[in-house]
Structure formats: structure tokens, C-alpha cells
Amino acid sequence: MASYLQIENLTKSYGDRVLFADITFGVNEGEKIGIIAKNGTGKSTLLNIISGKESPDSGKITFRNDLRVSILEQMPNFADNATVIDACMHDDSKMAHTISQYEQALSIGDSDIINNAIQQMDAAGAWDYEDRLKQLLTQLKITDLNTPIAQMSGGQRKRVALARVILEEPELIILDEPTNHLDIEIIEWLEDYLKRSRVTLLMVTHDRYFLDRICNKIIEIDNQQIYSYDGNYDYYLRRRRERIEAMAAELAKVKNTLRREQEWMSRQPQARAGKAKYRIDSFYDLKERSRVNLKEENVYLDVKSSYIGSKIFEAVGISKRFGEKVILDDFTYTFARYEKLGIIGHNGAGKSTFIKLLQGLIPTDSGEWNVGETVKFGYYSQDGIAFDENKRVIDAITEIAEDVVINGDRHYSPMQFLQHFLFSPADQQKYIHTLSGGERCRLHLASVLMRSPNFLILDEPTNDLDIVTLGILEDYLCSFKGCVIVISHDRYFLDNIVDHLFVFEGNGEIKDFPGNYSDYRSWATERAKMQSNESPKGATTATNEKPRTDRPAKLTYKEKKELEQLTADLELLNAEKDSLDALFNSGSEIPDIIEKSARYNELKELIDEKEFRWLELSEKE
After folding, report:
1. CA distance linking residue 357 with residue 315, whole number of Å
2. For the chain, percent helix, then strand, then coil, each to nearest 5?
3. Residue 549 — very low, low, confident or very high, per pLDDT cuts 50/70/90?
């Protein structure tokens, strides 16, 4: 494989804080590499150095000559007043330059210059560029090429930047959090495109399904060093666990040896006289090796919910629209105790508006919310922290509460509580406008949980959180003794947390799906296959066959699940009935004959009822 990029002995620090030291690795043709590390340990900084936006303290970066490289930034920047077409035809792109040269040649009218420009257009494949651009943007759900970028949402801007990168046809793409601000439909489109493409990738992402399905190599930054694993994310997890266990065993061995050598070094100098110098040097080497810290500092979530009663909330006839756009249309629902709900749908379908309506942050057009008296909302908004940017972290939290009471009996000062979210005393003195994306997320989470809510509403909580913190948050939410509503594009996160989904399908339509995201995806794929196999409306098959529309409808996903459950139930009920038949026919004395007779009659009724429904459903198969 050809070498595309070589990083040698790279070191970067900010003041006394070293991000990584003397790291070396390469990127070869065809590799799809994911970079993993905790927030603040240098992932994005490494990409910025490779991209030339930052300088390393020392080290060398070498790209292959004439390598075509494109970069998808976490927050793409565009020229002021640019439209979609302007953004995709930016001045520094080779394609834009080729087309511009051709247009200039036509205006000059010199046949030699025109012929040369035509050759350049042929070589670049520029003749159908605009058609390819329109086709790609349509796949990315952007149809108007003259829309000003300034009027677009973060997700739309990200899709335009993505189209620009793909159209450049690079050999190496550098991606910084490519899934942030994209809805699940577009993430899956991108995932499928990158899996099929032969392009080489170097990316930072916290999306674990994305990593697992695309990457063939993982690079982890840990303790200022890098560790490489030739495999996907699932393989990395197994090998990393083995590495940590081996390092822990080695560290224990070093410390045992060091204790013995410490006793020898502590003797009087004359007792050590004549001893080999190598042993003294070895002691200091052991001492240095024993300082390795394998203890992982993680966010500590030990905040229980306050008591929540049996009445949570009811939505009765809720309607909301903005002009012609319908968000909710006569929506009615009763929320249950301890329910964990996921909300999905394309950008702009009304997901964030729904949870703001629920909390009374936006008024409804009609209908009402009946919220239980014990409900205490905790709202994590994707809009970020509503703190004064010029305040210090500690001051912002102290303004909320000078005494943080957790689980009803434990008292923390704001400084102590912030340390649970990895804010050291020094970090707590930082001004909020200087915080990284991950630090802002942790501060936002701290401000929500310090109030001990019993109903958590989380709007895109996974943006900017590292993988380790995401895992801790998932474990916390799974055991949370309260209610949860989560809007997220992170499929892995949804699969681990929710009991069912609200699928926002647009125009006020909300589908309540019983299951997690993977269940829904399987169902949606199966439904799409069934629809594609159906004949056109009104068409008939063979001469003697009825039109397809006259046949019984196929089983829905929910009906299939019901049929499976009925089969299992009937098996158990018939087994119980058979055992009672055997008992009644045995001739033995039966002490509780009245109860067993009553149960026998009940079983017959249940079996009849379930068999009738089973036959009804089985006819649809």
C-alpha cells in the first residue's frame, strides 16, 4: 500500500499541559482510521496540526506529493453572502479554477487558449459538474442551489460542506466529528457512501456505530502516547481491555521489585559500597516506570432523581404550526412512570419544538398539557449553556446554588460538585468563553443534574461528549429512577436507553414505535422491501388471480410480534391444560379440586380466544 501521510515524533503542549509527545504513525492508501481519545487530550488539535491550522512544538508531517486532500471541519466556514452553489464552487477548488479558466478562454476568443481549456475541462471531468452537484445535493436533501448559506441551519451547512468535499474527489479525507448536526437518515447515507468508497479516511468521531461499520484501524491517544489497533471499534474495545490488564499487571510487578530495591537503597552508603552501578541506575529506572498512572479520571454521576408520583403528564389535543408548517396536529398521549422515550426524525420535523412545548417554553395553538405535581424537569438543550460567557465556571454554578444537595442528604459545595464532572480547582477558574465543546457539555450536564430532576429531557446530549463519558451517561440513564425523553442522532445511544420511539414523519404525523432504533431500522427496511415488491395500483397478475389490492394485507411489524407472542402463549397454556387433564384422569385425590377446575375452565376460554386471534393473523402471512 502506498503511504499517503507520515507523522514523525510529533509533540504538542499548551503551557505545562502536554497533549501528546513524540508520537509517530502513518496513513496508507485504503485505510479508514478513527482517532479516539477523551475530551481535551488532543484529538482535534492533532487534526488541526495535520491540516496546517496549528503548528506542533516539534516533529514532522509529510504528505505524498500531489495527494488530493479534503477536510470536513466540525463547524464549516463559508464566505459571507455565499449561496449553496457559491460554497460548492469555492475559489480555491481545482474544479472551480478549471471552469473559470474555460469561461475566460471563451471570453478571449483565442482558439489555442480555448483548445487548451477544453483539454483541461476533459481531464477534470468538469462538463457535467453542475449536474453531479445537483444530484449529490438532492441526495443530501438540499434542492435550492441559490439558498444563502447564512439562512441555513447547522445541519444544512454541514451537508453543503459534505457535498463540497465529496465533489472534490479527494484521495484522503480528514473528518472532524462528521455526524454532529446531521440527522440519522443523512448519517446512514454518509456511512453507506464511505463504506463503498475506496477513499482513505482519517477522522475523529464519537459515533460508535459509525466507527464500527466504517473503520479498519483505530488510533487511541492516551497518556500522551498513541496506540494503534488494526480493526474496527468492537475489535479495539477488546484489545484495549487486554492492554490495560497487561499494563496493570506489569505495573504491579514493577512496584513489587521497587519495594525490594528501595530497601537496598535505604541502607547505609557503606553497606552499598562496591555494588554495581547498574543496580543503582536500575532503581531509578524502576522508580520512573512506577509513576505511570493507569487510573482513569471519569465523570462521576451519582445523582438520584427526586420522588416522582404516578401521574406524569398528559397531552390532550395539542396542535402547533408555524405558518403552513404543521408541527403537531391534535396530539394526545399519556406519559407513564419511568418511561424512557427516544425522539427521531429529519431536521426541521419539530423534535426540539415538541419538548419546548411540553415544558411551556413555546405556547401551543390549542390543547393542553396536564403535568403531575411531583414532576421536576431537567432540560439539557442543544442550544447550549445559558450562562454569561464572561463569568468563571465556579461563579456560574455558585449562582445556581451555594449548597448542592444530592439524593436528599448529601451536601456539596459548588467546587466539590464540579470535580465530579472533571473540573479541577484550576479549571473552575476558567472563563466560560474559553471552554472547549466537551467542557461546555460537562458544565451544562452539571447544571442540570445539580437540581436532582426526576424527568430528564435531553436534546442532542451526545454532541461534543467523548466516548467514555457517553458510556457513563448511558449507564446513568439506564438506572435512572425517573422519566427520560431523549432526542439524539446517536443510534448506539438510543439503542442502549429507550423503550420506544416517537418518529416525527413531518406534517404533524408522529409514529409511536415499540422498540429501540435498531428495531425500528429493521422494521423500516422490511417495510420498504415489501412496498417495492408490490405491484402498481390497479395492476393484476395472472388472468385467474385477484388484484393484489383484494388480497389480505400483509402482517405489520407489530402484528408479527403479536403472532410470535401468541404462539408462545398458546404453547404454555396448552401445556398447563394438558397437565390438569392428566391430573383429573389419574384417579388420585385432589385437595384443591375447586380451584383447579376453575383454572381449567379459564384456560379453555383463554386458549379459544388466543387461537381465534392466531388464526386471524396467520391468514395474513
Report:
1. 10
2. 45, 20, 35
3. very low
Q: Distance between CA atoms of 477 and 552, rounded to whole angstroms?
A: 43
Q: Which residues does residue 379 pair with via DSSP β-bridges, in sequence order? A: 457
Shared domain for 218 and 246, answered yes or no, is no
Same domain, 351 and 227: no
Four-CA torsion 245, 251, 252, 254, nearest 10 degrees: 150
Helix axis angle, 393-400 to 437-449, nearest 10°: 20
The span from the CA of 382 to the CA of 353, in Å, is 12
- Of the listed ranges 35-49, 332-346, 394-408, 514-528, the least confidently predicted one is 394-408
pLDDT, tens digit (0-9, with 9 covering 90-100), for 123-166 = 777 777 777 888 888 889 888 888 888 888 888 889 999 998 99
Structural domain for 254, as ranges: 237-289
Read off the pLDDT of residues 90-117 as tens digits, 9 standing for 90 and up: 656 677 778 777 777 887 877 888 888 8
From the centroid of its chain, how far is CA 22? Answer: 31
> Once rounded to an integer, what is the mean pLDDT over residues 585-597?
73
Strand-pair partners of 456: 378, 484
> Does any domain span residue 546?
no
Same domain for 569 and 606? Answer: yes
CATH number, domain at 91?
3.40.50.300
**Residue 436, pLDDT above cutoff 70:** yes
Sheet of strand 200-204: strand arrangement: 69-72, 172-176, 200-204, 32-36, 217-222, 225-229
Do 164 and 60 belong to one domain? yes
Contacts 24+ apart (CB under 8 A), 512-520: 512/333, 514/558, 514/561, 516/342, 517/184, 517/342, 517/344, 517/491, 518/491, 520/344
Q: Is residue 280 part of a domain?
A: yes
What does pTM read for this prediction? 0.70
Q: Is 72 helix (H, G, I), strand (E, B) or coil?
A: strand
What total number of domains does the chain contain?
4
**Domain identity same for 349 and 211:** no
- Give the tens place of pLDDT for each residue, 41-92: 888 889 999 998 999 999 999 999 989 999 998 888 888 788 888 788 765 6
Residue in 374, 442, 450, 455 with CA at minimum distance from that of residue 405: 450
Helix axes 154-167, 129-139, angle to 10 degrees: 140
Cα Rg, the chain, nearest whole Å: 31
What is the amino acid identity at position 230?
A: D
CA 185 to chain centre: 13
Torsion of CA 24, 28, 33, 35, to 10 degrees: 20
Instruction: Tell me: do 404 and 318 sit in the same domain.
Output: yes
Residues 227, 255 share a domain = no
